[in-house]
Amino acid sequence: MHTGVEKGVGSMGFVTIRDVAREAGVSTTAVSQILHGKGRFSEPTKELVRRTVQRLGYIPDSRAQAMRSDRTHMVGLLVPDLHNPYFADLVSSMETMLYERGVGALIGTSAESVKRQDAYFMRILSQRIDGVIAVPQGQVSDGLKAVVKRELPLVFVDRRVPGLEQVPYVVSDPKPGLAQALKQLKSFGHQRVAYVSHPSLGSFSVDERTQAFRELAPQVLGPGAAAVYACDGSSSSQEQVLSDILDSSATAVIFGYSRDAVSLFSLLRGRNIAIGSQLSLISFDDIEVFRLISPKVAIISQQANRMGRQGVRILLDRIGSDLEPGSQAVSIATRFQLRDSVGRVA
Amino acid sequence: MHTGVEKGVGSMGFVTIRDVAREAGVSTTAVSQILHGKGRFSEPTKELVRRTVQRLGYIPDSRAQAMRSDRTHMVGLLVPDLHNPYFADLVSSMETMLYERGVGALIGTSAESVKRQDAYFMRILSQRIDGVIAVPQGQVSDGLKAVVKRELPLVFVDRRVPGLEQVPYVVSDPKPGLAQALKQLKSFGHQRVAYVSHPSLGSFSVDERTQAFRELAPQVLGPGAAAVYACDGSSSSQEQVLSDILDSSATAVIFGYSRDAVSLFSLLRGRNIAIGSQLSLISFDDIEVFRLISPKVAIISQQANRMGRQGVRILLDRIGSDLEPGSQAVSIATRFQLRDSVGRVA
């Protein structure tokens, strides 16, 4: 994408129709009409505008372009990381639903980096697309502002961005599934439950789960029945958390971050601890490996498919309508799914 | 994307510059020059060409567009399935390498469907891109022909397409890693080795591994030391394969398809069979779960990162050069990595 490097061009790093009009000394309407082959202008004026467009690297507004030439039936999808099976599920469910509706997807990833996210947004704006669905990095960035400024339909899924309340979003509510999990543990005789958090990730949704546990565990199990252990993903941290939990009186453990659950599952196996009888285990996230290993791991599912499909529905509604964009907040309830990794206390 | 629905327009479902020229009754050179604002033509001729372009929904050739307005620094990446960690690794390594070189990626998936692959190709051709890297479905399709016809730089990775020999490709050679694995097993005293194939998948590369095993196992272990068991991924098939292997005299098993390895790992655990001592286990594909479970699973790695990076290198070379496209075949050697799932025969 051509970004405005000339002095005074584009307050946000890209060239607008206003920049072209100012440089060429004509109105924005004239620029628009000349580019669309409309209106009556002298050849020198047309030539000047075309040269200015070329020199500044102006890319006609995608939204206006889409409105002019009908819809392009393409949308951008941005997720943080395709290595993470949860995001792979989320993006695949969105792509498939779009495909079924005759819409193509142009997928990109941010690698959890604001800079890389913004590079994707800047590039996707120069493509022929009708809208974008994004799992955003959690702050107002230049790239996000650019998408909003262009009035390109935009929907957030899984996360939202404080300060951009006008963007519709679909997020997951950790509480319903977590409450079901805690009630199930209680009914199986568990009186003390450990929770493994992962604050070093800096993820809004992972931290929100920890908050939900701190709030719900005392309500369901009573005061003092729950403890939170922070893991940072390193081997030493995993070993430390495991030792702390085994030294405690906890008979069950809930993981807020699924990668920690996979790692500790393996460490527990290595210590010959019987998962499901000696220690019960539950993890957030419905990832395939939890169905493949033995015993199968009970989960609190974020309903990635439902979230993705809801996001697609909102985006397609917005693309199809002439309504002014407005805020819209959808919360998808998590669900607990009991599996063999959870058993009764002997 | 606008597809040609008018009678007689576009033999492959989309509008070409020839269609515009024929409809407008001018030469293709005239169409090209008018669209690029070059040449000397009367206003009525220009207007006729512009209207014809608009009416037919002609999208200027991406390659010509890219050559005209310099490069777009965007490429398309097509993989079969983001749920498969191997393809998630492959596409992520390509996207990251492109990002480091200032090139954006527009990722799509085919869901192992020729129809969906072709829908991606047809759509990506209407975007502003410099080239495409694809893990293709294994046959010459309309979508593939369209990309080749447009002379858009194209590289295949992981698979190739018989009949499209002019397209450069980077594939994996299963033999080096498999030979290393078999020699390691032999040095640990294993005399009989089972192999689990997955012919129902219809994957060229998975079937090629089976072929390699049939060829190499007798060479390394001697005649009659190896047997192949076909698994179709169903529970009953997995149980059957497991029983057959346990009933045989095999002391080690190699999996051609990593999902089968994950499932059977779990079933072996359920039967309290000590992996690494009672039965040694090796799988193709370097996926994360093999490093997370205990014992860690020995792998024959396809070197997805190396393959992806090599594919990117070839594509960027082709985009940057004026050379005629020509065939180029790169084979990346697989590598065996010993882990605790492989042990000595007692």
From TrEMBL, chains A, B:
SMART domains: HTH_LACI
Keyword terms: DNA-binding, Transcription, Transcription regulation
InterPro entries on file: HTH_LacI, LacI/GalR-like_sensor, Lambda_DNA-bd_dom_sf, Peripla_BP_I
Domain HTH lacI-type: 15-69
PANTHER family in alphabetical order: HTH-TYPE TRANSCRIPTIONAL REGULATOR GALS, LACI-RELATED TRANSCRIPTIONAL REPRESSOR
The name this protein goes by in its record: LacI family transcriptional regulator
